[in-house]
């Protein structure tokens, strides 16, 4: 493992702090419990920190307050029923959770959704990314005391949620993806509406860039804080914007072949060389813009045709194993689906992004100050349901 | 007072001062909360804010106060109860002590110290005690961290505040608040007395430093690290509930008002209008009606300044504790010292 | 899965990497390299051309496999978990319990790349520069009565494996040699049983059968004798 200079310094500082506390003064550092009920953990994550003054010597996240046992539950569901479980994993980008599972099931059944469904899937996928990440962008400010951006985020995210509701009937849990296609076609007028909303969201990104990213205090709180080098990020399995912020050019939307429509649009995968909190946030801002671009382009390319391929009414998935992962709002979300030829899966391993993203916390928090805990956690961006599943 | 038509007995004067003190502390506090915290913030965040209680939610604050009064007065089991319960009162006390030196008119003052500025700066730091005590006695680690941060921050920002005030004192040649008001309204800019000589022009650097220090003294964003609700939950206020929290809340906004009063006295010409307009020369020339108009002018200036404070508060993210200390010690204090030195040199030179 | 149609548009990422995108040769090369590194440890492979690769290694070679893969460029750790291949003695909720007692075939059938034991661990690592991932499986030796099965830990190899192994230990009762801290993540410390093992009953489901099993009743307008009826097909789009 290579360390950055700053990590090395803070490591030395933490060692020194240990020695000072335990030998000279014979006192223990203060143990600070952040959570499970704490405004910064947006949910029920608990972080136990040992502090020397305001410096964190040792930190340990405790997850599991929200474990719902989805992996066990999937074993007693039929394949179509599983989507209603998994879209509660990352509840801000629910539709995106359904897609990799459906793709895995389709892969086992060796069918593929018709082109129209693929494009609409991709559009909804990106809309749920926008809904998810725009809240992150607003929430960033709140974590640092700027209370205004989050209201702008809630306001503009509402438009996206309305769109998702318009198409799927559900604001948070669409449960719209079906094996072999989609439940319904798009409603009338939805495409025009989406065009205007995407413009609003582009404006929102500009506003946030002015309001937060251009702010000197925000920059001084974010830059050079929580640096994660690329090899350590890969070692921990960080994914999504967290990985790209460390300079790793890896986006599953571009880098693997899936029956989705990302390759029909012209967009860019952003990376940042710094690997600090700032980079992670900035990447997400750019990705929101790219998502808007993808949606805008795909709206012009929705082909005519059916939205469901021919599937039996009672879906039995042939025996086999399949792994499909997609680039979800939080990072790589994948399902390892094992089927025994029955109505339901034999085992589903859910690889959620936040689980890996948060496992780096003990490493990343060593030697930082208490206020930086909040910014690092915020920039790693986790959703509790996505950690605990 | 000699020009007043009725002779008010001493007890009457005392009563008037007590009532007046309550009014000038509580009225701004309520006004600030409604106008800025409820309405301006809502406007900035594209929402309506309270609309139900009273027309446009104007009675919302009363409803909130009623709610807080009904809540149980809780104290943590391990808290140092006596001190814990005293702490909010100490903070509020500092606010009331502070208002005592602010003049609202030629004769409308509570006390007229010769060393008013000195006194104001001295009692302003009493609130640090209350906050430290609140943080320590709550038996809560978040409170402790918040209290210690507040202690460090308030002391660090007291220095630039004192130094910024020094420039004004040097220029006015007095530490009496009323003298400072007179000096500004009686002054001339290159022989033109039409706008007086508010020190915000000559002491612009001092004014900026003073307002930044006030922002920090009030622990408002971007200096709200001691409270940091997303991080320390609510800092030293975490454990407080019911009317003790209400007292902290009132003290926060009342102090904002009082500091704005002091800033308007020191830099914006206080209660006065340029004396040139009415041909006044000294304090004794000022007409009696200024005792009525003066407070109104003061309130106007106060709301203007608090508006700026709140605007910044709702827009900015917060500094980290070490950045905040660096900002005070490495930037504000040297700047304030330089400002003082330049003022002194110019004062001697002219 | 059928490959994408010809109109695949190359992204603005580097075209060379795209052109060299996973072919059979790539994955076969990986298998060959791995076989060279761990020799007899490699038990079986399964290759789905242009798609995915499974490798089963022997229990003893589990850690060596990880080391070899990491050295070969598979530096991105995706996940690690386990499978209990025993068919659930409680059924899967597909059958209406009113129809009589369940008939469960207790034979254990392992999936892709086979296996000999009831439980297997499997992990996935990815080579980001070559755009290829590989799923590695290993048998977890069936333990003696009353003891728990043990594997070598990957946690010192891939830092991310730490939490995954903790989860795996908690859910399947598989121990990991060399893991620093196998505390429970989700369950109370004194919790008994391993929830993701197939013999752990899902009590909620047993108390009240899932109403979803009646989902298979025929739709009103569909004839009874056509269970594989065509799905509804949308013929018209709104603005395509």
Short key terms for the protein model shown above:
heterotrimer; A: 389 residues; alpha+beta; 3-stranded antiparallel sheet; 50% helix; 12% strand; B: 350 residues; mainly alpha
- CATH homologous group name of chain C: NADH:ubiquinone oxidoreductase Nqo5 subunit
> What is the name of the CATH class of chain C?
Alpha Beta
Mean pLDDT of chain C: 73
The helix/strand order of chain C is HHEEHEEEEHEH
Count up the helices of chain B.
12
Topology diagram in text:
The complex is a heterotrimer of chains A (389), B (350) and C (240).
Chain A: H1 5-24, E1 30-34, E2 46-52, E3 55-62, H2 70-74, H3 79-86, H4 94-109, H5 115-143, H6 148-168, E4 177-178, E5 181-182, H7 190-213, H8 216-222, H9 230-235, H10 241-244, H11 252-255, H12 277-299, E6 320-328, E7 331-339, E8 347-351, H13 353-359, H14 361-364, H15 370-380, H16 384-388
Antiparallel strand pairs in A: 1-2, 2-3, 4-5, 6-7, 7-8
Chain B: H1 10-44, H2 60-70, H3 81-99, H4 116-124, H5 126-137, H6 141-172, H7 177-186, H8 199-202, H9 204-217, H10 242-267, H11 290-315, H12 321-349
Chain C: H1 15-19, H2 24-38, E1 42-48, E2 52-57, H3 62-71, E3 76-84, E4 119-127, E5 132-140, E6 150-152, H4 161-172, E7 175-177, H5 203-207
Parallel strand pairs in C: 2-5, 6-7
Antiparallel strand pairs in C: 1-2, 3-4, 4-5
Task: Give a description of the structure.
- The complex is a heterotrimer of chains A (389), B (350) and C (240).
- Chain A is 50% helix and 12% strand.
- Chain A is α+β, with helices and mostly antiparallel strands.
- With 350 residues, chain B is an all-alpha fold.
- Helix content of chain B is 65%, strand content 0%.
- In chain B, helix 9 runs antiparallel to helix 10 (242-267) and helix 10 packs across helix 11.
- Chain B is globular.
- In chain B, 50% of the residues are buried.
- The mean pLDDT of chain B is 84.
- The two termini of chain C are 26 Å apart.
- Chain C has helices spanning 15-19, 24-38, 62-71, 161-172, 203-207; strands spanning 42-48, 52-57, 76-84, 119-127, 132-140, 150-152, 175-177.
- Chain C has one domain (15-201): Beta Polymerase, domain 2, CATH 3.30.460.80.
- Chain C has 5 helices and 7 strands; from the N terminus they run H-H-E-E-H-E-E-E-E-H-E-H.
- Chain C is 20% helix and 19% strand.
- Chain C is an alpha/beta fold and 240 residues long.
- Chains in contact: A-B, A-C.
